Amino acid sequence: MTDIIVEYLKQGINLFLNSLTIIMIVGTFAVVSVVSASVRTQEAANERMAEAAEFNQFTSGEVMRGSDVIAALMKYRNSIQITVYDGTALKIDSDAVSATDYNLEYISARVIPEEAYKPTVEFNPNGEITLIRFDLQ
User: Fold this and answer.
1) How far apart, in Å, are the Cα atoms of 68 and each of 5, 71, 73, 88?
2) Can you give the pLDDT at residue 96?
3) 123-135: per-residue pLDDT in tens?
4) Alpha-carbon distance 75 to 82, whole Å?
5) Which run of H or of E encompasses 127?
6) What's the sign of the alpha-carbon dihedral 78, 64, 134, 108?
7) In terms of Cα–Cα distance, which of 64, 114, 63, 117 is closest to 86?
8) I want to staple 91 with a disulfide (CB 3.0 to 4.6 A). Which of 26, 87, 110, 121 is the partner?
9) CA-to-CA distance for 110 and 92, rounded, in angstroms?
10) Helix (H), strand (E) at residue 62
11) Confidence grade of residue 42 (pLDDT, cut at 50, 70, 90)
């Protein structure tokens, strides 16, 4: 009879220890989930800050040199539409130029490096930049 009581006592202790282990594992997963969500939120904020810093030169409203316009045209030619106006005439529209013609020689013939250009930025409803327009000052 004593053996049965000892056996039941051992099973009870094992059940308690197994339950405690499972509770600790579930608690650890919950903490990891919360930390992971926090890291994702911080990474998204860092990406927004990096994009804002990258395009601040265009959104600040400061006048840019033609050489900076050429650099922007070469850098963003495949991702953002860029237009350059000389007074009222369109000089460059990055979406209208074929990829083979869109090179430094083509751009340099239409943008005067020594002149000043004022950037204007257009955003889509999601807040992404869709167009950068440069007007000769």
Assistant:
1) 86, 5, 9, 21
2) 66
3) 888 878 888 888 8
4) 11
5) none
6) negative
7) 117
8) 110
9) 7
10) none
11) very high
Residue listed under structure tokens 């327009």: 133
**Residues 109, 102 contacting (CB under 8 angstroms):** no
d(CA 65, CA 54): 17
Give the whole-angstrom CA distance, residue 77 versus residue 102.
Answer: 8
**Res 137 pLDDT > 70:** yes
Exposure of 111 by Cβ count < 10 A (0-12 exposed, 13-18 middle, 19+ buried)? buried
**Across residues 15-41, what is the average pLDDT?**
94
Query: Which residues are 117's β-sheet partners?
Result: 64, 136
To the question of pTM greater than 0.70 for the whole model, the response is no
Which two three-digit tokens encode residue 51?
Answer: 């994009």
For Cα atoms 110, 114, 115, give the angle at the middle one, nearest 5 degrees. 70
- 33: tokens are 């989930």
